[in-house]
Design brief:
alpha+beta; 3 strands; 1 helix; three-stranded antiparallel beta sheet; extended; 17% strand; 81 residues
Length: 81
């Protein structure tokens, strides 16, 4: 077995901006959104069209992953109400 330490390519060093859906305890049907760049998390009132395409910071179960593959789910369908 060979083990090495290689530098990370420069185009892979910076994380993308993720979106995170928060819980609105006053109105559970309304979304609260945060944007996270790997260091800072900022609350936003509404997502822009560009932000709706940002990756979601979440962990999926195997079952949910398969369901999303089978149904053709896209990022833009993730609770954008």
């Amino acid at each position: 077995m060979v083990v090495g330490n290689y530098p990370v390519r420069s185009d892979l060093v910076e994380l993308p901006i993720f979106r995170i859906r928060g819980v609105n305890f006053v109105n559970p049907k309304a979304a609260i959104w945060f944007l996270w760049d790997g260091v800072n998390k900022v609350k936003v009132d509404q997502l822009s069209d560009e932000q709706k395409g940002y990756p979601i910071a979440s962990v999926l179960t195997y079952e949910l992953f398969i369901h999303r593959l089978e149904t053709g789910w896209t990022l833009r369908e993730d609770g954008l109400s």
